[in-house]
Input
Amino acid sequence: EPEVTQTPSHQVTQMGQEVILRCVPISNHLYFYWYRQILGQKVEFLVSFYNNEISEKSEIFDDQFSVERPDGSNFTLKIRSTKLEDSAMYFCASSLTGWSTGELFFGEGSRLTVL
Amino acid sequence: RKEVEQDPGPFNVPEGATVAFNCTYSNSASQSFFWYRQDCRKEPKLLMSVYSSGNEDGRFTAQLNRASQYISLLIRDSKLSDSATYLCAVNKRDYKLSFGAGTTVTVRA
Output
């Protein structure tokens, strides 16, 4: 069964460092997303990406964050100058269609720990 | 008011029991509704979409009440494997899903 894959599964970084989280969405999917979940809290939308551009972003997704689809398969989330409060599980997701179905396929997540 | 609110539980039920819980949403413009399941520290997985007329998938029944702005999930004949956190998700005809904080269900033998 096709799946969304994410790397790394866990990254520990020092405050102020830059991190890049990588995702390979399901190959025929057209919509890509990043969500995050702080431990014990809800899953929060960060950004959606379609046709090589951001289609929507949340207030969390400020200038510290950026996304990129550098080639035909990878979808990356870059966090510049990490802060302690960026510690969370970051989930990449993809979908074949946009808003109407809601069936997002999530990767297993990348746990980011900022020290 | 939060966009999506859920009773956090936990709902602790014996095997074979029926358990039901609701999720309320604040935006009347919400268009699409879903239940996701999340196991501990794992990714959310779609359990079922929720349609206006209500729908069933095996032991799971979902209902939508637009007038009162809530959706519900009922699990019949609970199994140990149903133990999880159930996330309500709502979409307003845009590119994001808004999730509730989840309802924890624990099924005991």
